Amino acid sequence: MATRNCNEFTLITGRTRFQAISMESSGKFDKEYEKSVAVAYMNPTDIDGLKLNHIVRITSNDRSIILPVKEDPSLPNRVIFIPIGPWSNFLISSKSIIGMPNYKSVKVCVERVNRDEPLPRLEDLFADIGRPFITFTGRDLVQQHEICNNDVKLATCIFCGAVCSNIIVKVCGNTVLEVLDGCSISVSKFINRHRNRVLRPLIMTPNSFEFKEVPLPIAIDKAADILLNSKHPLIYGLSSTSNEAIEIAIEIAKILKGAIDSTASICHGPTLLGLDGATIKSFKLDMLSDIDTVIIWGANPAEAHPKLMYIIKRYVKSIAVVDVRESETMKMADIGLIIEPGKDLELIRAIRSMIKGYRGGMESVNIGTDIIERFIKTLLNSRKGVIFTGLGLSMGRAKFMNIVELVELVKELNNYGEWYLQPLRGHFNVTGTNILLKKFTGYPFAVDFYSDSPIMAPGVTTAIDLLKNREVDSVVVIASDPVAHMPNECVRILAELSLIVIDSRWSLTASLADVVIPTCLTGIECRGSIYRMDYEIIEVDKIVEPPESVLCDTDVLRMLLDRIKKGLSYD
Amino acid sequence: MIEVVFRLLQKPRAPIDISSISPSIIAGYTINEVGSIAIRYGNRVLKAKDLFEIDCYNHIPGDPKLIKIIFTGMGTEKLWFVGKDMEEGIIEVHGNVGPFAGYEMKGGCLIVRGCARECLGVSMENGIIEVHGEAGSFVGAKPFFSNSTGMRGGRIVIRGNAQHYVGFCMRGGYVEIFGDVGDFLGTKMSGGTIVVHGSSGAYPGLEMINGLIIICKGVEDMDTGFEALEIQDYIQKPYSHSFRAFVGDRLANGFGLILLLNGCK
């Protein structure tokens, strides 16, 4: 890495509110999405120091990409932030330790380039994985809202893991007109539910890479044929669908003796590994009104879980935030600790040392002792507190060890007050995938049924590793978009394999699929049950009628399961 | 020693669960019986002879101690669970081996003339594993979400480097690595010995309760939970700076020992 012209920076990737809104409103093929994710944020002093001309070349793992650069004074020096998407994933290596690639604290070289260098478009990234760029971007539903009584309905928001209830939506015909009491992402999710939809099942014609509309039974037959001919299929995604659909997906993986993994493996998977065997009391979000202190560690709920942050701000006396930059959440906090990327483990252990009365440990974290002492005082003087953890912890170098240490800290703090640990989950039903997989197999994610009994090993049966090592020969993606979130190398392999996408909206993954089966949106067009991040089961109802002849995830998966059972000559 | 050679007929495209072939299982079999052992190839169940060209005498001796199984051919890295629950005899892999090699191994000898993937010797109880190349993460570790423990006995020798979390939750036995190891060596270790001839990544011995870790060529970062022992004064002059000893992890009330040597052979 240390070449002559290398200005070494630490790359961190993550979600932003702008990325989430653009993804929900105009879809991932749109200019808005490109604008929101194909950008690098740097501290203004770094931009001036390198004399950058609005664009920058970033190199990592022998791959380089040119991106527009924007100022972000909240970032520390020599740290570069790129929102997660195909552009950032171009730089991420698929090398994983426990199934989780290094999305945070990647060492990169940053170089000045001329203003006229071309910027890579989505088309160029697709050309790089060896597939032509599909111009089809889904269809918009025809909105029917001429004659109606402006129905007002209570809904449950189905975006993030906080699953806020009591969102008020004004509905007219098949159109959501207005969303009250929801965050900006929630509004975008409901209002734009009609955009970029897949309305008919599609099959890709081999060689020509063109999609053809087919009736549903033919698409199901084709999907079942692919799976029945496959020696080791992988079912991936599931975090944005209902518990009922997840149960059927697990059944499919079981009878096909394939692997099943949820998006948790590249998200909070390490958190779940860290919580293995931990004996701490479970937290419920309803308890927030009775909590004195909230610690938010490596997460940015102000952008990713806005309404939860609003509730925290309203009820909780003292908020402390630990992050690598002055995030929106930190701006709302009473104590903010800015640490170097990847130094979380050191800080947790330094705090534990101080609580136990040992000296030392402070030197490695590079934060003023007075502020840590204030932080510890807050921890020890709270009657009831909760530590919310984010991907900053599960994706750092120490990965699940961060959580192991944090669990120990919570146990020690329980001698002084009542403390809880709660991961801030991303997708609305990612918790459901973990609970149901654990219930049926004993493992919360990355389960492989190919052996006599289910097996799970991070780094082996995790989706990234199964793809990277070419252990699977077909993939079913359900309600997820791995092409936008997995490292480029895995996306290349995904493009080579037989791919079935079952999703409600057109996605980057759908554009690489052999079969695309459309479904309705759970919680808007379909009812179902989901698990909130605190393991609370929540029933969601439909608020508008689904598009004509499009079925719910459960119905499509049940049809597929029946067809597979028939193929395997089950009774 | 009687050799039974399994040569892969072609490069597999899915993982093969090879746990149904071990010296104790094939002892006393005829070559035809060996050829009809059921093996899981992805989600299919095939006969051994459909996957391998099998080369051995017509009758395999009844004593597993006299049997040496050799896996060879293109794609041995797709062989998962090599030597799972193995009790006696020798298994040799000519090439790289897939994950879970030596899983819950109870005796005998597993030799890998190549590299090993993740989860080598997980929950191993006894026996010897020797890897001539490199090894992945979680050598001698505890499997997640299970009630079993890490390695309890036996010996793992790795000639090359090993990745992260070597000896995770290890309770006994001996691991020797001639190359370097990654981060978090001997995490949650409560017994046994790990010797690293090269260097170690960050933070060996976190949450360590007991056991011994010897690292010959330095550590990237040592955690402050380990206390340096002031024993230099008791060692004769030219050797007094030849090693440093640490006890910890004090945050877990542990008494594990880490020795950092300078230039040990």
UniProtKB/TrEMBL annotation, chain A:
Source organism, top-level taxon: Archaea
GO cellular component, as recorded: membrane
Domain Molybdopterin oxidoreductase as annotated: residue spans: 239-561
Annotated GO biological process: methanogenesis; respiratory electron transport chain
Keyword presence, Metal-binding: yes
SUPFAM superfamilies: ADC-like (SSF50692), Formate dehydrogenase/DMSO reductase, domains 1-3 (SSF53706)
Alphabetic keyword roster: Iron, Iron-sulfur, Metal-binding, Oxidoreductase
Domain Molybdopterin dinucleotide-binding: 9-106
A Pfam family per the record: Molybdopterin
GO molecular function annotations of the record: formylmethanofuran dehydrogenase activity; iron-sulfur cluster binding; metal ion binding; molybdopterin cofactor binding; NADH dehydrogenase activity
Membrane-traversing stretches: none
Protein's UniProt name: Formylmethanofuran dehydrogenase subunit B
Automatic annotation (TrEMBL), chain B:
Catalysed reaction, written as an equation: N-formylmethanofuran + 2 oxidized [2Fe-2S]-[ferredoxin] + H2O = methanofuran + 2 reduced [2Fe-2S]-[ferredoxin] + CO2 + H(+)
Pathway listed: One-carbon metabolism; methanogenesis from CO(2); 5,10-methenyl-5,6,7,8-tetrahydromethanopterin from CO(2): step 1/3
EC number annotated for this UniProt entry: 1.2.7.12
SUPFAM superfamilies: Alpha subunit of glutamate synthase, C-terminal domain
GO MF annotation terms: formylmethanofuran dehydrogenase activity; transition metal ion binding
Ranges annotated as spanning the membrane: none
Biological process, per Gene Ontology: methanogenesis, from carbon dioxide
Lineage: superkingdom: Archaea
Cross-referenced InterPro entries: Formylmethanofuran_DH_suC, Glu_synth_asu_C_sf
Protein name, per record: formylmethanofuran dehydrogenase
Species name: Ignisphaera aggregans
